[in-house]
Backbone:
């Protein structure tokens, strides 16, 4: 997701109890409805069945801004009779077929409650198939990708140009599915896009076929790997394709690019950044997670989104974020923000996916940090440090980074820059880039193609870093609170003393304690004063504190 999506993430009233620490959220937040709970909670009508595969077909009518389609869902079940399927109004369910028979269903808001004739129970390796036919005029995105919905646009030559952006809002805005991040189709998905013959339909994964029939073109695409529902996205336009091959850690990876025909030359030049990006990310994060499905970038009628093996690109073939450096340091204009950021999501967001959108910092914080890593690969460690420090100017500390659970709401937009700076702070505290790299690669190996919780990620990092449980208050500080730690310090009689204030209970951090110019030691400090000998006076000490730690330094009277 692009960073400006943070405006869509708001917290609510209530209390969150995590790791034994109580956090109150703003009483001015919105009240949640039953519709929010139906969308965001794994209730008894969802937990009894597991999605195995989606086979989706869609035909848009550009002039009338309508869709019609079918989704065949392969699933296994465990003693369930009523199934919740999500399809947001005003989309309409026409019929539901199961074993050759129509099933009764009732609509409740943005859901369809399906009743089977008897309890379903998987026996051995048995799977079930359910076909849902639907149509309607889907919600239209007014300012994609930030508001979400179907996009009806025209290119510079007036030809139809269509797509959809629906992260957060949900895939059910345009097709029926189990619209919860925790359940991905384990066996992948196919997407069949029906278009006029003069347009190309581009989907996720590999292009299987295009068949022309009756004045229409039928384009079929297939993903072999698990994929989150919101990542399944069609693009329809006057596209031209070009390809190249990246020799990666797991062999040859096909790189496929689809752009509007008049932008072909620009794309061939700008997309030269893809191979060095992949080389950098494979070094730091591990192998690209979807070799079987190719790597693809598609020019989109909006800025960008991390659609798995099908990345939306709309950055106008320029560096920076539409030509701007979000860090204010100059380093962000050395590369194309959408290429780097959205591709980083293939590891964090698509390979590792959070079960609840409340934990989206795992997607956005780590992906924001891939910008730091690419800056290092391209321009060196000093540039990466400057970039990490520069993006702090975008942190507002308005709400906790982790949002409320079970209602399909994320936390503060600080999940991007604050999440990234928490990771940079952790890296700085570790003082071992080999181990830090092992941690990033390990996350993508241990949680390969999985849905996770914040607690799982925290536990893994605590173990591999060697810091253990003393990191729990550290995570609480940056993810579940809005205060920034303050390192208070003083010098008296050749002794430097430091302590942490403005911290959550039990916070301890590994801080660089300077003893002379360029010299010092890393020490764990708490709310109690820690003291070491120093050769520095206050003026000299002021310049010796490590700026890569996301803390505030404050001199106090000795």
Residues:
């Amino acid at each position: 997701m692009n960073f400006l999506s943070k405006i869509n993430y708001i917290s609510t009233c209530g209390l969150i109890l995590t790791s034994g620490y109580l956090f109150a959220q703003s009483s001015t937040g919105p009240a949640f409805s039953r519709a929010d709970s139906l969308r965001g909670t794994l209730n008894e009508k969802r937990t009894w069945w597991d999605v195995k595969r989606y086979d989706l077909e869609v035909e848009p009518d550009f002039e009338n801004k309508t869709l019609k389609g079918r989704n065949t869902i392969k699933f296994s079940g465990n003693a369930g009779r009523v199934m919740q399927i999500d399809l947001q109004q005003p989309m309409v369910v026409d019929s539901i077929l199961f074993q050759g028979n129509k099933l009764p269903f009732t609509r409740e808001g943005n859901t369809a409650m399906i009743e089977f004739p008897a309890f379903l129970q998987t026996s051995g390796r048995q799977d079930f198939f359910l076909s849902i036919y639907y149509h309607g005029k889907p919600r239209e995105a007014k300012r994609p990708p930030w508001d979400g919905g179907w996009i009806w646009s025209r290119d510079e030559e007036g030809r139809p140009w269509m797509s959809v952006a629906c992260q957060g809002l949900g895939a059910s805005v345009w097709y029926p599915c189990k619209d919860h991040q925790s359940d991905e189709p384990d066996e992948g998905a196919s997407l069949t896009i029906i278009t006029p013959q003069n347009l190309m339909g581009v989907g996720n994964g590999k292009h299987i076929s295009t068949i022309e029939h009756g004045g229409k073109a039928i384009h079929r695409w297939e993903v072999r790997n698990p994929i989150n529902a919101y990542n399944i996205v069609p693009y329809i336009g006057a596209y031209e394709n070009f390809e190249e091959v990246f020799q990666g850690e797991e062999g040859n990876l096909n790189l496929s690019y689809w752009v509007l025909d008049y932008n072909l030359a620009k794309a061939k030049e700008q997309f030269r950044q893809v191979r060095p990006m992949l080389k950098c990310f494979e070094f730091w994060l591990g192998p690209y997670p979807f070799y079987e499905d190719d790597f693809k970038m598609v020019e989109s009628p909006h800025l960008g989104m991390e659609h798995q093996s099908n990345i939306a690109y709309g950055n106008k073939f320029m560096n920076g974020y539409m030509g701007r450096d979000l860090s204010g340091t100059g380093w962000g204009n050395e590369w194309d923000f959408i290429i780097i950021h959205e591709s980083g999501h293939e590891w964090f967001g698509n390979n590792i996916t959070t079960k609840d959108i409340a934990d989206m910092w795992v997607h956005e914080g780590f992906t924001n940090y891939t910008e730091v890593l690419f800056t290092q690969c391209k321009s060196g460690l000093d540039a990466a440090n400057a970039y990490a420090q520069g993006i702090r100017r975008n942190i507002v500390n308005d709400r906790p980074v982790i949002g409320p659970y079970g209602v399909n709401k994320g936390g503060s937009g600080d999940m991007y820059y604050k999440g990234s700076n928490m990771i940079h702070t952790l890296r700085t505290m570790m003082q071992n880039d080999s181990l830090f790299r092992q941690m990033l690669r390990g996350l993508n190996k241990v949680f390969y193609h999985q849905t996770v919780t914040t607690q799982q990620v925290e536990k893994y990092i605590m173990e591999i870093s060697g810091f253990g449980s003393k990191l729990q208050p550290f995570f609480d500080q940056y993810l579940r609170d809005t205060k920034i730690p303050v390192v208070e310090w003083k010098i008296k009689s050749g002794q430097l003393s430091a302590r942490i204030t403005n911290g959550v209970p039990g916070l301890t951090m590994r801080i660089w304690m300077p003893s002379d110019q360029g010299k010092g030691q890393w020490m764990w400090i708490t709310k109690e004063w820690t003291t070491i000998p120093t050769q520095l006076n206050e003026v000299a000490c002021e310049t010796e504190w490590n700026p890569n730690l996301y803390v505030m330094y404050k001199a106090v009277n000795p």
About this structure: The mean pLDDT is 93. The radius of gyration is 25 Å. The chain has twelve helices and 29 strands. Residues 425 and 550 are 6 Å apart (CA to CA).
